[in-house]
Each structure stands twice: as structure tokens, then as C-alpha cells.
Design a protein that fits this description.
The complex is a heterodimer of chains A (311) and B (239). Chain A is mainly beta and 311 residues long. Helices cover 13% and strands 40% of the residues of chain A. The chains are: A mainly beta (311), B mainly alpha (239).
Chain lengths: 311, 239
């Protein structure tokens, strides 16, 4: 019921009003197009484990593995989309809970491709809950919005005062090396997030809305010269946020930068936000990794392992 | 009745118009001269370098402001007309919780509070006094567009006029910062201001039916500029 209610709220969004036709293939939200994933992490005998796993294809997680050499206690789950990307009419729902004192890392197997659409849209609703002292890194790989794609994503986060969450989206404006019309050729990208305390107090909200024909896309203060961007938030207590902020150096070189980035404070002592913009995905990923390393060191006293050669 | 075409005979709206001009004047002492709305970093990094790029910058800020602050202003104005104090506070909270960057937050709330203090000195307004008391008690953040909405609703200014005044104040703030930050003369800034104001009706129509949850933006390089400014050592402006 809760699933239908949350997805239903997205269905009524104003920006989707022009995308209500049914696909010629399988109908929207048909069985097989509604992916569901529930992950619950908690402490068992002082070790963080994935104690709860429920999944409905096309979303899939197999098990938690412990392969981070710099943080061997960290259970890592990779979200696999067996559909090969997000298709028109898909409806996804992801629910992650990290219980008191536990830690976890959730990522995705590869770039999240939102395919070209000629009918309907795809939607995703996420809930992320962190209890007292919990630590979660939820860093999916890049989302690539193909030309004519329509995607709406809403995330509801509930976080205890002393927990730390690193969460964010990295986006690429289409298959830039495939076709000239791919760059911001998307019909709709609507990504919203709301952060609350367990008592319901709202700390932070943001909505990014890109619609086809936005005349400002190529303005210098928007995306001129760049194709990839990331908004990565670190929700953490003010003392930790202050240490992270002191260490993160703004990157805005004067001559033809490949990537620029900086960290800002969120309202209501919610934490920090990393803003990064770059030419290629790896330029932006470098900025995100630099932030991620500092966050992990300051929040958990652990560092990042060397990046795999094949990433 | 006034003869609109010739303007002869006067109209009961003349004092009303005069006061609209007073509240729109860039010399209104609420401290907005201390803010550049990101322009200082935009000039330092080369994002803005000449009149053409300044026009694009102002155009973007007006579009973005309409889709964020403008929506909160319209909701607060309607709440003020309905004498619904809770709805005013909701618009205030919802706008503030979407403002990233300590300097952007400072601009929004410091100028908001100054505006309320000024208006109360020159005109009695119980709704504005109650809002200012809530700001002082830390019960509400005190965002400028909300204060403007309360004051202007009290003066029988309709919501479209209030929206125009808010947008104009943002544009003129950036123009006055531009004169101090870059090689540009008063004639160019006036030409840019004149051009940029052409979009106001379209912006109003685009946002007037939107809910507070629909406040949205997209300007990644601007967002980095906001972060950039907090870490620059040489600066004239507070944001």
C-alpha cells in the first residue's frame, strides 16, 4: 500500500502531465516493471550485516560483501538492474535502513541508463533511514539520461542527529559521444530530495528540474562547456561538518578547467553539499572521491582504498 | 475617475504607486548593497566578463529566483491576505530549507529582518510585527520575500505587483554590484536591467500556480560559484 501511495504521489507531478500515454509494449507499472528493493543493515555481535533483503525484479541485490580493504567492517551491496537500464513505464522503489551504530555502503553495478522514450515515463521513489550513530555511503554510479527520456526521482531521508549519510547523484547529460542531440536532449529530469529528523522536522529539501528546451542550459552559469555534474550531500553533525569543510579545497582553476567543485553548508545544521561540474564523468568522479575520502576519514576514522583500475 | 490615457484628473492610486516606488528603490536601507548574489565569484572566475555575459547572468538569476523565492513570496502573500500566520511561517521555513550555502542563507534572512524592522518604523503592521517577533524568538528564519509579501499585502499591493517588486530588487542589486566589480558603465547596466525586466510576466505566469514543494532550480556552475565565494580571501561582498 505504502509503495503504491508513494509512487502515486509521483504520478501526479505537474511535470509529468504531458507524458501520460501508454507504451506500445508492456503497459506502464505492469508486473515485471515495478522493481522493489528493501535493504536493512544492523549490528550483529558488533559486526554490521545485511539482515533484511527483499527484492522484486528488475531490481536485484544478491548479498553484502566485505571487500573494502581500508574499511573491512563495511558491508557493501551493489544494486543490479537486470533490465539493462530504466525503460518507459518502469516504476522503482528502494528502501534502505541502517540501524543504530551500523555502517553500510550501497552502490550500483554500472551507470544507470535511462533509455529513450516515446511514451509514458519512469519513476523512482527512495526512502533512506539512519538511526542513531549509523553511517551509510549511498553512492550510485552515474545516471545517464538518454535523449527523449523522462525520469522522476524522489528521495525521502530520515536521519538521527548523530548519524552520517553520504548520498548523492552524479549525472551525465546524455550519451555525449553517440549523437549530437544527446546532450541535454532529455525530455524531463526531475530529482527531488527531502531530509527530516526522526521527529518529522524538515531540515533540507532540493529539487532539480530540467525540461526539454530550457533556454538557460548553455548559459555560462549553468552548463556551458560541461556535460556532467554531481550534487553529493553529507548529512552529519555540525562538528564533523566543520572539519570536513576545513579540509575540502574549492577547485575553480582560472584557465579552462576540466572540472570545478566546492562545498557549501546546508540549512538547519543538516551538513554539507558538494557541488561538482565537469567535462567527462571521470573528471566529476575525481572531485566526488576527494570529498568522499575526507568524509570517511572525519566521520569514521577510515580512509578510502585505491580505486580499482577498471572503474 | 482618472482618464488613464491622458492621466488627467489624478486617481486614488497615486499615493499607492508612490509607495511602491519607495519600496522598490535600491536605496531602501535594508543592507542589500552588501550582497552580489554570486556575481563577485562569477567575475573572478570569468563566468561573467562583459555586458553580454552579465545579461545572461542576471537573466538566469531572475529565472531561478522566480522559481524559488518567487513561489514562496506568492504563497506568503496569499497567506497574509487570508490572515493565516501558520501558512506564512510554512512558506518561510520551506524557502529557507532550500537555500544551500551559508552566505546565501545570510542574504535571505539578514535582509529579511532588516526589511521588517524598517517597515515597522514607518507603518504599523500587526502581521509584520508578529513575524518579526517570531524571527527574534528563533521560531522562523525570516526570509526577505516573506517579509515583503506581508508588508505589501498589508498595503493592498496585489500579488503580481509584489512579485514584480521582488524580482526588480534582485536585478537592481546585481547591477549595482556589477558597477563595483567589473569594467562596465551606468549606461550598460541600465540597458541590461531594462532588457532583463522583460521576462517578469512570463516568470510570474510560469510559477503562480506552483506549490511550495515545486520550488526547483538547475544551475550547477552557479552552485559551485556559491561555494567558491565562501573560500575566497579577497572580496567586497558578503555573497
Amino acid at each position: 500500500m505504502a509503495l503504491l501511495e508513494q509512487l502515486g504521489r509521483l504520478d501526479s507531478a505537474r511535470e509529468l502531465r504531458d507524458f501520460q500515454t501508454e507504451p506500445a509494449q508492456m503497459r506502464a507499472a505492469a508486473p515485471g516493471k515495478v522493481g522493489e528493493l528493501r535493504l536493512g543493515f544492523s549490528l550483529r555481535d558488533d559486526r554490521s550485516v545485511l539482515h533484511d533483503l527483499y527484492r522484486v525484479a528488475p531490481l536485484l541485490v544478491q548479498q553484502a560483501l566485505y571487500w573494502d580493504e581500508a574499511m573491512p567492517e563495511l558491508p557493501i551491496c551493489s544494486i543490479i538492474s537486470i533490465g539493462g537500464g530504466i525503460l518507459q513505464g518502469d516504476r522503482y522503489r528502494i528502501d534502505i535502513t541502517v540501524a543504530e551504530g551500523a555502517c553500510a555502503h550501497v552502490t550500483s553495478q554500472s551507470a544507470n541508463r535511462i533509455h529513450q522514450m516515446d511514451a509514458n515515463y519512469a519513476s523512482q521513489h527512495q526512502t533512506v533511514t539512519l538511526e542513531s550513530g549509523a553511517y551509510l555511503e549511498y553512492l550510485p554510479d552515474f545516471t545517464i539520461a538518454y535523449r527523449d527520456s523522462r525520469f522522476i526521482n524522489h528521495s525521502d531521508i530520515v536521519i538521527a542527529e548523530d548519524a552520517t549519510l553520504l548520498y548523492g547523484e552524479m549525472m551525465l547529460a546524455g550519451r555525449k559521444h553517440h549523437h549530437a542531440d544527446e546532450r541535454f536532449g532529455l525530455d524531463l529530469l526531475s530529482v527531488a530530495v527531502a531530509v527530516r529528523r526522526p521527529d518529522g522536522r524538515k531540515l533540507f529539501a532540493e529539487k532539480i528540474l530540467i525540461e526539454k528546451g530550457d533556454p538557460t542550459i548553455d548559459y555560462p552559469a549553468v552548463m556551458r562547456g560541461y556535460d556532467a555534474f554531481a550534487n553529493i550531500m553529507c548529512l552529519t553533525p555540525p562538528a564533523v561538518a566543520a572539519r570536513i569543510r576545513d579540509r575540502y579545497e574549492t577547485n575553480f582553476p582560472p584557465e579552462a578547467p576540466r572540472a570545478i567543485s566546492g562545498v557549501c553548508r546546508l540549512p538547519n545544521d543538516a551538513g554539507l553539499m558538494l557541488r561538482a561540474v565537469g567535462e567527462e564523468t571521470y573528471d566529476v568522479r575525481n572531485e566526488v572521491r576527494r570529498f568522499w575520502r575526507i568524509v570517511r576519514e572525519e566521520a569514521r576514522g577510515r580512509t578510502l582504498p585505491e580505486e580499482f583500475l577498471w572503474r | 475617475m482618472a482618464d488613464r490615457a491622458s492621466g488627467r484628473g489624478g486617481s486614488p492610486g497615486m499615493a499607492h504607486l508612490a509607495r511602491l516606488l519607495q519600496f522598490s528603490d535600491s536605496t531602501l536601507p535594508i543592507g542589500s548593497f552588501a550582497f552580489s548574489n554570486g556575481l563577485e565569484s562569477a567575475v573572478q572566475t570569468g563566468v561573467v566578463s562583459d555586458p553580454e555575459s552579465l545579461l545572461a547572468y542576471v537573466d538566469l538569476i531572475l529565472r531561478q529566483t522566480a522559481r524559488m523565492d518567487g513561489i514562496a513570496l506568492l504563497h506568503a502573500h496569499r497567506a497574509a491576505l487570508a490572515r493565516d500566520h501558520e501558512a506564512i511561517l510554512l512558506a518561510d521555513r520551506e524557502l529557507f530549507c532550500r537555500r544551500v550555502g551559508e552566505e546565501q542563507q545570510l542574504m535571505l534572512t539578514r535582509v529579511g529582518k532588516k526589511f521588517a524592522e524598517l517597515v515597522i518604523k514607518i507603518m504599523p503592521s500587526p502581521a509584520l510585527e508578529r513575524w518579526l517577533a517570531d524571527i527574534r524568538a528563533n521560531a522562523t528564519p525570516g526570509c526577505l520575500p516573506v517579509g515583503q509579501a506581508i508588508a505589501l499585502a498589508h498595503m493592498d499591493v496585489d500579488e503580481a505587483e509584489a512579485f514584480v517588486m521582488h524580482q526588480y530588487a534582485i536585478a537592481s542589486m546585481i547591477m549595482s554590484a556589477a558597477l563595483r566589480l567589473m569594467r562596465i558603465d551606468h549606461l550598460d547596466t541600465q540597458r541590461i536591467l531594462f532588457t532583463a525586466q522583460g521576462r517578469v510576466e512570463g516568470d510570474y505566469r510560469a510559477v503562480r500556480d506552483r506549490s511550495l514543494d515545486e520550488m526547483a532550480s538547475f544551475a550547477p556552475v552557479f552552485d559551485v560559484l556559491v561555494a567558491h565565494h565562501t573560500t575566497t580571501h579577497v572580496r567586497l561582498f558578503m555573497n
